[in-house]
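Case study 2.
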Amino acid sequence: MKHNDEGKRDYYGTIFFSPEVEALADLEAVIGTPLPKLDTIEWGHTILGFSSREGHVIELCIVGPRFLWAMQNTRRMEILSKSIGKFKDLKVLSIRYTDIFDLPEEIGNLATLEVLDLHDNNLSTLPENIGNLLSLHTLSIFDVHFQTLPESIGELQALKNLSIYDTDEDLFLPESLGQLQALEDLDIYNCFLKQLPESIGNLKSLKRLTLACNSLTRLPVSFANLKALEYLDISQNLFPEIPTFEGLDALKKVDYMQCCQNHTTSKFF
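Prediction:
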């Protein structure tokens, strides 16, 4: 890494603002290998590296050794450096197959972050200041160990897509979830979820709701207020009988395979 003009430095042939070079160097030290520069990072793909524009990292994918193809290049990663907060123009952050159990508070400094992908880590919580990510439109959390989302989740007013898959304990959704007025797609799958917050009826933009493979026995009264809902999946839950869907005027399809003892696969409207 070489010094260039004032305020900028070289990172393996690419010029960045100095704080971001320091952050890349911190990640390199923890991961055990330089981060390759990529043209772009395709959403949902697992590849170690970053993309940049005009001296700033805009996409960053951190991959741990539990991912087969990265095993020879990376070392065990349990802590994410606080310097992650120095990526001031970061749009996409993907953290996959690491042993990270906690995210630093500095992640709340990523004011431009639009996509946060946390896939197969050892996370036991999300920081309370995640509500500072006011540009975030997609939050995906897979295979985690926490029981609830922070109350500040309701402050994510740009959030359109929220997915939580495969928790190993009963998941509790806070009432603040109902503050997500831009939310269009909510996917809670295999999370031992026993109840929905009454505030879910406030999600005026919600179009798709997947609640499959949970432990639900009832839908809240406010559920009838989901006037924009077009698709619902309540398959493999513990309802005593198939719920009614009165008031859901936009509803086009419901999947409820094994949602209760007397079940069918799906219903079209």
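The two ends are 61 Å apart (CA to CA).
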